[in-house]
Design brief:
Blueprint: H1 8-15, H2 21-30, E1 36-39, E2 45-50, H3 51-63, E3 71-74, E4 77-82, H4 86-101, E5 116-118, E6 123-126, E7 139-142, H5 154-170
Antiparallel strand pairs: 1-6, 2-4, 2-5, 3-4, 3-7
């Protein structure tokens, strides 16, 4: 999977999250291959999902939904940039969805793995502006390219997470069990 590069406008947007945006931009001018820690909560929130599940969410957002904001891969997780306030609201929406799914007539509940929501008071490491030469584990999947990128809110990320959970639950490497098969306990052989 190739890495995307952040545009100059995208860098300005990212840097605006920090306390000293000009210092961040100056640092990136000198070291465009260096990741930076930025605070969440004012410009963006981050929803961190396990890598494969996050990729499935991203595919659903682009295939059946409205698309996504910036997305980064970081140490086996997908960091989905979201509208400020998402980190506070999404956990309660996911909890409600899990609770209400138990009574569905179709029996399809799916399961959403724990999503880490980073908002006000949190900080995250964002990838460098330009990809590493070695294609490291920290990279942009969808790089910021404007000064005001669209960011999904909690309802859209809930939609993607629930659908990804259902899709993941229906994927199996094993064929369905034959309900009429005779099963013998062979653990007590003499």
């Amino acid at each position: 999977m190739s890495s995307a590069c952040v545009t100059a406008d995208g860098a300005v947007w990212l840097a605006s999250a920090g306390t000293y945006p000009r210092s961040t931009l100056a640092f990136w001018d000198e070291r465009p291959h260096a990741p930076v820690v930025l605070p969440c909560g004012s410009v963006f929130d981050i929803v961190s999902a396990p890598g494969m599940f996050g990729r499935l969410m991203l595919d659903l957002l682009w295939g059946d939904g409205p698309g996504s904001g910036p997305v980064a891969a970081f140490r086996g997780r997908m960091l989905l940039f979201a509208a400020p306030g998402t980190a506070q609201r999404l956990p309660s929406l996911l909890e409600w969805e899990a609770w209400s799914a138990h009574g569905r007539p179709d029996g399809r509940t799916g399961s959403v793995p724990p999503l880490l929501c980073h908002g006000t008071g949190d900080a995250v490491t964002v990838p460098a502006l330009t990809p590493d030469r070695d294609g490291g584990s920290t990279r942009w999947v969808v790089a910021p390219d404007t000064r005001h990128p669209w960011l999904p809110g909690p309802e859209i990320l809930l939609w993607a997470a629930v659908r990804a959970g259902r899709a993941e639950a229906s994927i199996s490497i094993f064929p369905p069990a034959d309900q009429d098969a005779k099963v013998y306990d062979v653990s007590r052989r003499r």
